[in-house]
Write a sequence for this structure.
């Protein structure tokens, strides 16, 4: 009997108003039903938004460091429950437990970081142009924030948004992905135990109808979104028309460049981890490898040998290196891209390209083999479009300038990587690569929670999560002028 999970609204666990629900299954074993979750619509969002708006009236007045104490407590609870949460996350979204533990750890780091920042929500002051007058500016909370996230980092990515938003004094309506809804409820349990008052944090489960209701709700003033560029762009136009603040983290087509002078073993390990870690299902995943022509054939041969040995299986099983793809729809999308790649005249699928059904471990889940295309050129769809699966496209470059040109030739600009021992080349690349994140001798994945995270071009809309920059998203500026001269001093009147 599948467990029945609920929404979390105003501190209570409740069904959807309509009674509708959806099912969530383990991607490594489609017979394993994790449970049913409320299929929420605008009426559920309305209840959550109302609770959040009401709670905002008092939450915003709690001294920020006191809010920080609760976030620190949330971090402690995450530490205590780390193993259990990681296993639940792996069961619902598939990546190996060593990865979901890292995911929880990122939420822990974010909680402690946000707690600390509540003592530093710095504004600034500046001299007035008039005598006996003081100019100050403060960061103030905005109100109810709508948070909509993807399933691939079910704790870390929501925590990047939720915890800074709470630290700043906002309240939240959170819609987790339908593919990782249980993790959303676990987050609610953690925050409730940490002492976050009823109504401050609300979870509504559902699909696009629920997401659209959040985006369109007039009381929800900020939208924080991680997901596809197609959905993000739609959110931006709808929410933009309502003058909402919108922070978007969307697609990537991230590349790693390998130069002949690089430590090639290191570059090889980096490419394998960047391309096939999390089954390639990260917005930061290495989906293109750009190799200098002098080492092209040799590097590919070594890569294929290693990639072919990656242990595929259920993430809950010891020794698994790569878990399943998230669901059947995504598996079909990956298959479709492999078909498209095979049809391009020059590209060759040199490894994988099929579902991994070979063993008992993989027969019942959405597994796909590590897949490598070589001789890909920059105009091909598999070089330009985000696939979000274990598919790596390899391109050849003549020199560093050519490699950077190829790297930049995509609609996206999230992460990037260069392997080289040449410090001059490294700095040139840092200057010329169009991406929010550039790694030198590090794969394209693995951003740290206290550094700005986000991308340029089709990846984002100018905001950065992570670190201090997240606090910019979740606050507005209030400027205050205090005149203690006792007389009317007129600014912007020509006194000169
Ligand atoms: C994502 O896939 O949405 O840098 C985020 C990384 C992770 C975050 C990925 N820390 O790869």
């Amino acid at each position: 009997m599948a467990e029945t999970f609920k929404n979390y609204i105003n501190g209570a666990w409740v069904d959807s108003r309509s009674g509708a629900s959806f099912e969530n299954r383990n991607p490594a074993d489609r017979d394993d039903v994790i449970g049913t979750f409320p299929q929420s619509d605008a009426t559920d969002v309305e209840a959550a938004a109302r609770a959040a708006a009401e709670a905002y009236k008092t939450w915003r007045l709690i001294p920020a460091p006191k809010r920080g104490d609760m976030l620190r407590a949330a971090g402690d609870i995450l530490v205590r429950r780390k193993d259990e949460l990681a296993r639940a996350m792996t069961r619902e979204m598939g990546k190996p437990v060593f990865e979901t533990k890292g995911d929880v750890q990122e939420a822990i780091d974010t909680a402690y970081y946000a707690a600390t920042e509540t003592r530093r929500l710095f504004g600034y002051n500046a001299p007035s142009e008039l005598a006996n007058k003081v100019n100050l500016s403060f960061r103030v909370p905005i109100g109810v924030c709508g948070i909509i996230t993807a399933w691939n980092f079910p704790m870390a990515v929501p925590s990047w948004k939720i915890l800074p938003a709470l630290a700043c004094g906002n309240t939240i309506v959170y819609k987790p992905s339908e593919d990782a809804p249980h993790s959303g409820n676990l987050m609610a349990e953690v925050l409730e135990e940490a002492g976050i008052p009823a109504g401050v944090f609300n979870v509504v489960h559902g699909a696009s109808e629920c997401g659209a209701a959040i985006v369109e709700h007039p009381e929800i003033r900020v939208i924080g979104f991680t997901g596809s560029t197609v959905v993000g762009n739609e959110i931006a136009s709808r929410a933009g028309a309502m003058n909402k603040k919108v922070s978007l983290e969307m697609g990537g087509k991230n590349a790693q460049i390998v130069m002949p002078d690089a430590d090639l073993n290191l570059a090889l390990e980096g490419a394998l981890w960047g391309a096939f870690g999390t089954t390639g299902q990260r917005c930061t995943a290495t989906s293109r490898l750009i190799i200098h022509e002098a080492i092209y054939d040799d590097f590919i041969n070594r890569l294929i040998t290693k990639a072919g040995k990656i242990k595929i299986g259920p993430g809950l099983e010891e020794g698994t290196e790569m878990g399943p793809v998230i669901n059947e729809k995504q598996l079909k999308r990956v298959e479709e891209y492999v078909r498209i790649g095979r049809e391009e005249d020059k590209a060759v699928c040199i490894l994988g390209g099929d579902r991994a059904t070979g063993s008992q471990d993989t027969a019942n889940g959405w597994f796909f083999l590590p897949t490598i295309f070589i001789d890909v050129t920059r105009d091909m769809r598999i070089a330009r479009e985000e696939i979000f699966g274990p598919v790596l496209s390899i391109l050849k470059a003549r020199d560093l300038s050519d490699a950077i040109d190829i790297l930049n030739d995509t609609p996206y600009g999230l992460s990037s990587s260069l392997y080289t021992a040449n410090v001059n080349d490294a700095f040139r690349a840092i200057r010329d690569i169009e991406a929010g994140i550039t790694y030198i001798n590090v794969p394209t994945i693995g951003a740290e929670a206290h550094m700005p995270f986000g991308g340029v071009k089709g990846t984002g809309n100018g905001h950065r999560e992570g670190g201090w920059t997240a606090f910019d998203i979740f606050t507005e500026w209030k400027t205050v002028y205090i005149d203690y001269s006792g007389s009317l001093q007129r600014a912007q009147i020509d006194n000169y």
Summary: The CA atoms of residues 143 and 170 lie 5 Å apart. Residues 150, 152-153, 157, 226, 282-284, 445-447 surround 2-aminohexanedioic acid (CB under 6 Å). Residues 64-93 form the longest helix (30 residues).
